[in-house]
Amino acid sequence: MSGAEHLLPHSEEYLNHLAVERGVSIHTLKAYERDLRLYSTFRSDEHLDVATLANGQQLAQFVAWLKQRQMANGNRYSQASVARSVVAVRGYHRFMFIEEFVAVDITTDLDTPRAPRSLPKALTVAQVDALLDLPSRETPLGWRDSAMLELLYGAGLRISELTQLDVDDIDAVERLVRVLGKGEKQRIVPYGEPAADALDQWLVRGRHQMLPANAAVFVNLRGGRLTRQGVWKMVHRYAQKAGIDAAVSPHTLRHSFATHLLDGGADVRIVQELLGHASIATTQIYTQVSRGMLKSVYERSHPRA
């Protein structure tokens, strides 16, 4: 199969991440998919193993290859198109590192001009409180949604980890949840009293009313395991009701979990363990967020800032 006919490993997961977690438009997604297919073709033409990490020189070669390809077809590849392709490729490699499919962040070695790296967006504590207070405490759906929101924020779970939870993964006595993370690695994460109360309401009073067809903790109205898309839509709906203007996804609550822990003085290695990051470098992204908050507080509060 030629490079033009397939995407590189985990490209579809990257595109799904852009759609579900980042809310990227269909138009942009299609453009990024074209860029990634071209990148796959380039690596195939250059006889580069897809497992081989890119570097700055290879990215420059990719840009030159794009221009030559377009000129050969009678079309000049616009500077804007080149820039978008580079952004797509950078984003793909960055995603591979963040999601721990690779052990090295090769984007730090790419020496061509690049857009500023965006930091994770965290909600304020007040925004989180407003969001988590919204689900009804009187209905099965409200109990379910409350428990999901509380775990996403209170335990910092990934959306895939939340949807994969089975009833046996919850230790209600010790308030611990067993999570299957990246690379099939298990970890144990504590959760707080609000999450415990919400889970108790859902598991004891609400879940059986949806006639669950399996051991999943969170099920839909038909009794099937809740999907990632279902969780994303739920979070988005409550964020809109809470009047939060920023784009909010399940991953936003995970970002907020990490940022608020660090702001509260938690050690970065403890946060790494709680998040299930294989590399401390991934967790240290959040320390930049906290430094930004410290700078903001300083500038707002100090008389000689």
What does this protein structure show overall?
The protein is mainly alpha-helical. It has 2 domains: 3-109, Tyrosine recombinase, N-terminal domain (DNA polymerase, domain 1, Orthogonal Bundle); 125-298, hpI Integrase, Chain A (Orthogonal Bundle). The protein is built from 13 helices and 3 strands, in the order αααααααβββαααααα. Strands 1-2-3 form a 3-stranded antiparallel beta sheet. The longest helix has 20 residues, at 26-45. The chain starts with 10 loop residues before the first helix and ends with a helix. 29% of the residues are buried. The model is unreliable at 1-5 and 112-117 (pLDDT under 50).
SS summary, helix count = 13
What is the CA-based Rg, rounded? 22 Å
Counted beta strands: 3
Major sheet size, sense and barrel closure: 3 strands, antiparallel
Approximate strand percentage: under 5%
Low-confidence runs: 1-5, 112-117
Task: Write the CATH fold name of the largest domain.
Answer: hpI Integrase, Chain A
Distance between the termini: 60 Å
Count of distinct structural domains? 2
CATH superfamily descriptor of the largest domain: Intergrase catalytic core
Could you state the order of secondary-structure elements as H and E? HHHHHHHEEEHHHHHH
Structural class: mainly alpha
Strand order of the largest sheet: 1-2-3
Question: What is the average of the pLDDT values?
Answer: 83
The CATH class designation of the largest domain is Mainly Alpha
**Shape annotation:** globular
Could you say what the CATH architecture of the largest domain is?
Answer: Orthogonal Bundle
